[in-house]
Amino acid sequence: MSLHDLPAVHQECGDCPIRHRAVCARCEADELARLEQIKYYRSYQSGQTIIWSGDRMDFVASVVTGIATLTQTMEDGRRQMVGLLLPSDFVGRPGRNLAAYDVTATTDVVMCCFRKKPFEDLMSSTPHIAQRLLEMTLDELDAAREWMLLLGRKTAREKIASLVAIIARRDAALHLRRTKGELVVDLPLTREEMADYLGLTLETVSRQISALKRDGVISLEGKRHVTIPNFDRLLEEAGDDTDGGMLV
Predict the structure, then answer these.
(1) Residue 66: left (phi > 0), alpha (psi -120 to 50), or beta?
(2) pLDDT (tens digit, 9 = 90+) per residue, 102-111?
(3) What's the CATH class of domain 156-238?
């Protein structure tokens, strides 16, 4: 596993940009001080493998900046993207020694890592960490169930709109912005990666993005910089509404 330590990005937990959403969100000052003692940062370049499936995991981590993908490889070599890791998402599972998926940096990624055994010990004595991790796990379960609906029942246009909405909502939550009115976001995936993730062809993805742009649902600058004039309109195109949108 190739990695680069980044001591220069070390910061106090209280000043962390993902503090309000990460596994440490409910920690008190003394608990943050204990986390400080076992944390370190790692950075990865776009396209770099962070973890290989089957690797022994000696750390758990939170994504601080950047996007990574979770991928599973079948016995015959076929690969399927099964998830995205966005800022504040948790990587690794306490109590499990081996990685279940390949984790690959889609953009440049910085991760706040914790040595695994000390983190597990801290969980047993720090209810705030265990409670927050449980909340995040249940949110992930809800999101996985919604994703099953998306892949199984939604049209190609709805799939594209749903993915854009998921990314925009998470970006707004991370920066404490409301999802009302106009939103601007950079898509972390190429169109080829979107096609893989959504179970569509590249041509279908390109065609549906062009249709959403033509209909004024989104506007594009380049291939990834997206402006959403009206988020509620995007949710309508995704087959969701303002009260029952996809959980992320």
Answers:
(1) left
(2) 999 998 999 9
(3) mainly alpha
